[in-house]
């Protein structure tokens, strides 16, 4: 907190020094207009105009980035939905394979039971 106060005080001191150092009157001509004003005002207005221009350009870029981000989020959502559908389909296939394997195992067990002769039949054959 203390460093913020010191930073603000230092900034105010720099602004005051800048103002006093550039207090001379200058003649400014722009297009067909001529005016006499303090150099500080010319510099500050130039800085404010530059900052305004940069804010407009930055806003346009930020708007474009938001639009791109929105499109990418929509793509991510679509891919996540496809992934969930694929997981569901995989689970269904896995379930079907498990059921098929169980039926095959039961069928093989029945075939094995049917192919083994009864003990009573083996005694008769001997």
Automatic annotation (TrEMBL):
<keyword id="KW-1133">Transmembrane helix</keyword>
<feature type="domain" description="Lipopolysaccharide assembly protein A">
    <location>
        <begin position="22"/>
        <end position="84"/>
    </location>
</feature>
<keyword id="KW-0472">Membrane</keyword>
<feature type="region of interest" description="Disordered">
    <location>
        <begin position="97"/>
        <end position="126"/>
    </location>
</feature>
<feature type="compositionally biased region" description="Basic and acidic residues">
    <location>
        <begin position="100"/>
        <end position="112"/>
    </location>
</feature>
<keyword id="KW-0812">Transmembrane</keyword>
<dbReference type="Pfam" id="PF06305">
    <property type="entry name" value="LapA_dom"/>
</dbReference>
<feature type="transmembrane region" description="Helical">
    <location>
        <begin position="39"/>
        <end position="60"/>
    </location>
</feature>
<protein>
    <submittedName>
        <fullName>LapA family protein</fullName>
    </submittedName>
</protein>
<keyword id="KW-1003">Cell membrane</keyword>
<feature type="compositionally biased region" description="Polar residues">
    <location>
        <begin position="113"/>
        <end position="126"/>
    </location>
</feature>
<dbReference type="GO" id="GO:0005886">
    <property type="term" value="C:plasma membrane"/>
</dbReference>
<dbReference type="InterPro" id="IPR010445">
    <property type="entry name" value="LapA_dom"/>
</dbReference>
């Amino acid at each position: 907190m203390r460093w913020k106060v010191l930073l603000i005080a230092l900034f105010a001191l720099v602004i005051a020094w800048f103002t006093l150092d550039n207090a001379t009157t200058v003649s400014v001509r722009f297009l067909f207009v001529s005016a006499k004003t303090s150099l500080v005002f010319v510099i500050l207005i130039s800085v404010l105009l530059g900052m305004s221009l940069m804010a407009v350009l930055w806003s346009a870029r930020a708007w474009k980035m938001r639009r791109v981000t929105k499109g990418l989020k929509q793509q991510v959502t679509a891919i996540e939905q496809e992934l969930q559908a694929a997981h569901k389909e995989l689970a269904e296939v896995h379930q079907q394979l498990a059921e098929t394997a169980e039926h095959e195992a039961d069928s093989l067990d029945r075939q094995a039971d049917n192919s083994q002769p009864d003990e009573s039949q083996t005694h008769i054959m001997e």
